[in-house]
Amino acid sequence: MKIISWNCNGGLRNKTYFLDQFDADILVVQECENPVYSTHAFRDWAGQYLWHGDNKNKGVGIFARKGHHIAALDWSSAEYEIRSPSPVQKSLKWQANQLELFLPCLINQELTLIGAWTKQANSPNFCYIGQLWLYLQMQRDKIAARADSLILCGDLNSNPIWDEADRFWNHSDVVAELQALGLQSAYHCLKAEVAGQETDPTFYLHRKESKAYHIDYFFVPERMLPTSKLMLSSVTESLHVSDHRALILDIGSASNETMALSDGL
Asked: Listing from the earlier edge strand, what are the strands of the sheet with 111-117?
């Protein structure tokens, strides 16, 4: 099965050709518009899909291809609370539907997929990777129960180069929690690179190669790694249509050896 994760930088209805060339089974697209409110042509292209967001022009979409079936998972009732140990008795509470943005679903009633696009979410402290940390606290039991067949992917807007010493929801902390659940970063395992020292950026601020960062990820069960391959779309082609490169995960396509990434296909 081939799964693509890509932040399209908006206007997916005009960029579908970029995704079509990869002939994937499942597409996870961040910053894409809701097909319901778009053109007839885009709705036809979308086919069977799920979409989540608070802005009809920019959300997370998951699109099924080649007869695969996707069904939304309703994990919206979860919540998480942090209580202050001080005599003031303050607390902070979040509900799952407040977090931005996570779209969990089932593929063919077998594989659990969580499409993610972490945002600022009007939070000065728990923005971006903090949103994923909160999501893990809320959904830990569900994720743990499915971890052997669960994939989390998307634009996390995060990298350990931005870790802060006095914060326990840093990028590195979240990766450690995912690893404790049995989920590994496909890029770092398959290319044997250290987090924060990636040689392949996935995001180019203002589409400038001089301002490049690695902020898009696939986290997969460790058992999938020996027979998986991960590739990135070429920098040149990607920057014509977005400020992100696409990540293409091919599960079960490789022989029993670790496959390296390549720039392009």
From this structure: 70-72, 102-107, 111-117, 150-155, 216-221, 183-185
Q: Which pLDDT belongs to residue 84? A: 85
Q: Which domain holds residue 240?
A: 2-251
User: Could you tell me the CATH number of the domain that includes residue 108?
Assistant: 3.60.10.10
Instruction: Please report whether residue 257 resides in a domain.
Output: no
Please, are residues 74 and 58 in contact by the beta-carbon 8 Å criterion?
no
pTM above 0.85, yes or no: yes
Residues composing the chain: 265
Contact between 10 and 57 (Cβ < 8 Å): yes
Q: How large is the average pLDDT for residues 177-197?
A: 97
Q: Please, which pLDDT band fits residue 89 given cuts at 50, 70 and 90?
A: confident
CA pair distance 162, 221, nearest whole angstrom: 26
Could you report the per-residue pLDDT of 39-85, keeping only the tens digit for each? Answer: 999 999 999 999 999 999 999 999 999 999 999 999 999 999 998 88
- Dihedral-angle region of residue 133 (phi above 0 means left; psi in -120 to 50 means alpha; beta otherwise): alpha
Q: Angle at which helices 171-180 and 129-146 pack, to 10 degrees?
A: 0
Domains identified in the chain, total number:
1
Buried b / exposed e along 27-40 (16+ C-beta atoms within 10 A) = bbbbbbbbbeebee
